[in-house]
Amino acid sequence: MKKLSDIVSGIVQAINLIITLNPEVLQIAALSLYISLSSTIIASCIAIPAGGFIHFYDFRGKKVLIALIQTLYSLPTVVVGLLIYLMISRSGPLGYFGLLFTPGGMILGQTVLIIPIMMGLVIAALSGVGRDIRDTLVSLGATGFQSIIQIVKEARIAILSAVILGFGRAISEVGVAMMIGGNIRGETRVLTTAIALQTGLGDFGFSIALGIILLSIALVIVAIMYLITSGAIGTIEQIIGGAPRQ
Amino acid sequence: MPSEGRLIFDGTDTNAPEPVRLAIRRRMSMVFQKPVVLNTTVLENVAFGLKFRGKSGQESRAKARECLELVGLSGFAGRKAITLSGGEMQRVALARAIVTEPEVLLLDEPTANLDPVSSEVIEDFIVHINRKMHTTIILSTHDMVQGQRLADRIGVIIGGTIAQTGTITEIFYQPKSHGIARFVGVDTILQGVVRGNDQGLAKIAVGDTLFEALTSALPGRKVSLFIRPEEVVLTKPEMVPPITSARNQITGTITKMLPVGPFIRVIIDNPVPITALITRRSCTEMGFVAGMQVVAGIKATAIYVLPDTAGSIGP
């Protein structure tokens, strides 16, 4: 049982580490962001078109596929870690690329981890665009492709939520980062694995500092989501700084 | 694509490859019963049809502004369309439908979900489009009065088939079956037999009561009499003037009085059931109450006589 004073001194130390911009803390946070943002971008590039395809085209086994995707929402991170480990270890089919214990391997693992939930939520987002919108687009003389583009635009907020949720799952997971990255200091150590390690070592100040940073990232995500859904930020163009619509 | 049958547009079967169908679709546009807007500005909403047809953003927006002005929403161009009221959204939908100057405009109960004021604005606009832009408009409605106000020709659809097409007069005053008659608001439908015919002015017996009406049906022929409720004039028995233009004076007893907006539907029976539509004011002034004896005056010309055939009595 830790004494209360340990926790208090841990918090004081954590604030100190953050305020003084401790290089190691910053490096870990930056690596976390780099890996999780990369996997989110790659997963988006796969999940959004794939989700769109599944939504817009009818094929045999579509319902089964959607059920399977939904099942994979709760894919355990350690199972993905194990699968990717087997794939990229020296003797595995992708062993040639030498991805084990590298940020690249971690990006691959997190990408695989978050694709199902992003794809599932993209399908749900597109399904949320009503029949009446589709009929209206057809009545306005849209081609099939113009309709699809417009429906995706119509579902943009829900699709953005899917992307942000995927990012949230990637940055907060520890299984893939630990098993594929190996928590190598200065190379593959990210916020979650560092917290796990430092807590085990009794270095609470460091852990708490990283925990605060992790929570801050989550807060920023929630704030962005809120601004988008409340209409304060209307479109993706505005977020990334496009010219405002007249 | 129709789910059944064939749909020919200007000589072209619409059951054709997508490029042909797209070309046909782009010559028409449609407004749906439920107001639908896309989640962008009002102006962008109206401009969609032109953008889909490859017009530049600037040209589309300029044209969209003109159409917004027509529907009285010029001040709303920059507003987010989903924040509008139902009536405003429907006006946006109409502006969006006509911005492409369609040859045919399809309106599926465009005012069904709207308040009376919004409906009126939409109706005025529909008339404007028809008169000024010479657009052919096909409008579906459950509101017979709206049909009467807006249409040049009406088709009555009962049970999934077109029961009768014709002008307003034909549909409302000369329905071809009992079903259509009930549909277009003919409350009194009586069945009788022609007893005599003097050059088109016939005497028709309904039970023991004789009616005079215009028909070429010969004596002995079974006929149906259609009487619209607003054509029936009610008076008290002691007040019937000795000389009146109404050839039929039927005495009966009021059985029911149903308020319908500013009017009252008075149902008379014994010997024959007749429904009259009179204003609230005249009802109060005359002191009509259920159980009272009244005289229903109906001009011979106000009765439409339909000779009974196999199809006329059915639905």
In a few lines, what is going on in this structure?
The complex is a heterodimer of chains A (246) and B (315). By secondary structure, chain A is mainly alpha-helical.
What does this structure look like?
- The complex is a heterodimer of chains A (246) and B (315).
- Chain A is mainly alpha-helical and 246 residues long.
- Chain A has one domain: Orthogonal Bundle (MetI-like fold).
- Helices cover 74% and strands 0% of the residues of chain A.
- Chain A is built from twelve helices and no strands.
- Chain A has helices spanning 4-19, 23-56, 62-71, 77-88, 103-127, 131-139, 144-154, 156-172, 175-181, 191-201, 204-229, 236-239.
- The model of chain A is unreliable at 241-246 (pLDDT under 50).
- Chain B is an alpha+beta fold.
- Chain B folds into two domains: 8-151, Rossmann fold (3-Layer(aba) Sandwich); 186-307, Beta Barrel (OB fold (Dihydrolipoamide Acetyltransferase, E2P)), CATH 2.40.50.100.
- Chain B has helices spanning 18-25, 42-52, 57-70, 86-98, 116-132, 144-150, 168-173, 178-183, 280-286, and strands at residues 8-9, 12-13, 28-31, 104-108, 136-140, 153-158, 161-167, 188-198, 201-206, 209-214, 222-227, 233-235, 248-260, 263-269, 274-279, 293-298, 303-307.
- In chain B, helix 3 (57-70) packs across helix 4 (86-98).
- The longest helix of chain B is centred in the middle third of the chain and has 17 residues, at 116-132.
- Chain B is elongated.
- The chains are: A mainly alpha (246), B alpha+beta (315).
- Chain A binds chain B through residues 130, 132-133, 135-144, 146, 150, 153-154, 231, 234, 245-246, and chain B through 18, 22, 25-26, 29-30, 32, 34, 36, 38-41, 44, 48-49, 52-53, 78, 80, 93, 96-97, 100, 106.
